[in-house]
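User: I'm writing a tutorial on reading structure tokens. Could you give me a worked example: one chain, its sequence, then its tokens, then a sentence or two explaining what the tokens reveal?
Assistant: Sure. Here is the example chain.
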Amino acid sequence: MRILMLMSLLSMVCNSQAAIFKCVGMDGSVYYQETFCNEDEEQTQLLCKTKPFSKKAVQQSQRRLQVQRRYVLQNYKLLQREERARDKQDMLDVRRKERLKAKCQKIEQKIVAVNEQLHSGYTIKQGQSLNRKLAKYQEQKQRNCTDE
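And here are its predicted structure tokens:
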């Protein structure tokens, strides 16, 4: 009974014409394989037959495969574009941070220069001008240099 079930399963599993060999060992064990049996075993060749594919079925499969390939290629190209855009944005962010850092350094240098002038002596009119400059530079520093 088992052998009959195995034979029917083998006939359903085969998807093209192929040779299956039934091998009977010296101890009476039975097994099936796609290659020839050992020399000391009894061998029987079984054939699996199925209908060949029709041209229409082959064409449909090819069309589905082409659609799938196009879909995969489009997704791959989309992923590449997204990755290039991320890389470009990262590069722009680095450049922006470098420019901002240089700008903050210049503002800090201006603040130091104004403070030195304030400590070195000045007239009332010069003092008012220096205080306005100092307030302006400190406001620029607060506005531009807070996210370092």
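What the tokens reveal: The radius of gyration is 42 Å. Residues 55-144 form one domain.
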